[in-house]
Design goal:
7-stranded parallel sheet
């Protein structure tokens, strides 16, 4: 049996890296002898995370365009040409059977060069509103695996396969771990637990909201698991007490989800996919500082299905307390949100994506 070769490219954020690693792990389980190479952006988090997961990675000198005039923007054309040439060299040397892109700076040049070399390519689009890179790459890609329906206005219809986003398999049945989660975090089982997720780095506006509303949460008789992110931990750790646990990051996402009764979260693609699997009532506060405003679009697609509550940052001060107090006192609404978001879950996404990759192996 021949040894198959795969290149995966995705990075810049955990939302791009984790799906790529999940796909690589599934490919490895199907083809134990497969040769797998990652390509990322130099100095980005994938250069650490991918080797930690047990895979080789090569780095490209590439970065995105900034929204304002900077020295890095002036260097962008040079970086792009360098990355295209380096990508062509990597592809010639490695000779992959399929190249898979999960988003991030490096996936653009790499997939472009793979398309030019007539090597099959797969795009894994995580958001409900694709960025410009994937829109351009889609013209020559063989297959586009998406997490949301109705993306025909962005991509060629005949190439789209709705697979969902890869999620951690330990999230599939978190309810069975509830007692373990409550014990792990030393929580009071007679109080509602609110989980606040701002991402691994943190979300300034979400943290400011939680800080401002600590007295309000106390009046609601709830306990908080507050992931403020590593950038903000030193600023907010002073609020740790028996009803407020402040964390820089979370090691056991399965247990923290199992413990939660209501989740307050950003709306990155991976977080949305995980929350659909977990099926807890969610209040989304999307970041307005992302390309194409895709977090708001991700959250809206769930809210439109009555699977979550969406509050924009600009509305927080005027609406948060009213919306939250209504939700915490309304068990029926909590149950309906939970049931509706679960209907959007696609728990077998990784396997479905790998099935599409296998179809392209020559």
């Amino acid at each position: 049996m021949r040894t198959y070769k795969f290149i995966l490219s995705g990075g810049g954020t955990g939302g791009h890296i984790y799906p790529a690693i999940a796909i690589a792990n599934e490919l490895k389980s199907r083809f134990p002898d497969a040769d797998i190479l990652f390509v990322g952006a130099k100095d980005k988090m994938e250069m650490q995370k991918v080797p930690q997961a047990g895979y080789r990675i090569k780095g490209l000198w590439i970065a995105g365009l900034q929204r304002r005039l900077t020295f890095n923007n002036a260097l962008f054309p040079v970086k792009l040409v360098s990355s295209l040439l380096h990508s062509r060299h990597i592809i010639k040397q490695f000779k992959p059977d399929v190249v898979i892109g999960t988003g991030g700076f490096a996936s653009g040049p790499l997939l472009q060069m793979a398309n030019s070399a007539r090597i099959p390519t797969v795009i894994q689009e995580q958001n409900s509103y694709p960025g410009i890179t994937n829109k351009l790459l889609s013209k020559k890609a063989n297959t586009i695996c998406v997490a949301y329906k109705n993306l025909e206005r962005f991509f060629p219809k005949e190439k789209i396969v709705v697979t969902g986003n890869p999620v951690r398999q330990d999230l599939i049945d978190v309810e069975s771990k509830r007692a373990e989660g409550l014990a792990h975090y030393n929580l009071d089982p007679n109080k509602k637990t609110i989980l606040v997720l701002g991402g691994s780095l943190g979300a300034r506006r979400v943290n400011q909201l939680i800080e401002k509303e600590l007295d309000f949460f106390a009046s609601q008789n709830v306990q908080l698991l507050w992931q403020c992110g590593k950038l903000y931990f030193d600023e907010y750790r002073k609020y740790n007490n028996k009803n407020v646990q402040v964390m820089a990051f979370i090691e056991r996402m399965d247990l923290v989800y199992a413990s939660a009764d209501i989740v307050i979260s950003r709306a990155g693609a991976s977080s949305v996919s995980e929350l659909c699997i977990v099926g807890k009532p969610v209040v989304f506060i999307p970041s307005p500082n992302v390309a194409e405003d895709h977090q708001a679009k991700n959250a809206k697609s769930v809210a439109d299905s009555k699977g979550a509550i969406l509050i924009r940052e600009s509305e927080l001060d005027s609406t948060f307390e009213t919306i939250f107090s209504d939700l915490i006192s309304n068990e029926k609404q909590q149950h309906e949100l939970s049931q509706n978001i679960k209907k959007l879950a696609l728990p077998n996404a990784t396997k479905a994506i790998v099935e599409e990759i296998i179809k392209l192996i020559k």
